[in-house]
Specification:
single chain; 164 residues; OB fold (Dihydrolipoamide Acetyltransferase, E2P); five-stranded antiparallel sheet; 29% strand; elongated
Amino acid sequence: MKVIFGSVMSVVALFLIFFGCLFMSIGGAVYYFTIYAVSDWVESPGVVTTFSSNTSTDSDGFTTTYYCPWVEFTTASGETREVLVNNCSSPPAYEAGDAVTVIYNPADPEQVELKGGVRDIVGNLIGIGFAVVGCIPVVLGLIFLVVGIVGATRRSRPATTAAM
């Protein structure tokens, strides 16, 4: 333990490794729960039927219209549903008649998401982003730790004298 905590560089390395592992854990958790939240949902083919639009104006006076698709799909029990999917975009990401794949909650078929939709993409990007950002301090921490241990080991060796 004296070798590890014997230098400032080794202590800094341990903090870097700890915080890097923390970021990687957060990234893994976000990625896992993005997938886990819909793991028991059912996949079904669907068709975009129409759009619902919302217009908003920002503080600078710019107006944007967001288009949210209505999707028709058939549940595993054979029931046809048409639901508004919260996958809004500007301009519209789909056209009426486009085939899409939906995933829905079998306990409540009104809970529908597009497969590969916004939640999937954002959850995966956040998860992977945190994991990548966490790798940087871990790698730096491991390098600092090795350098600190080597330096502490060299300092702790007794000095040798050359015999003539």
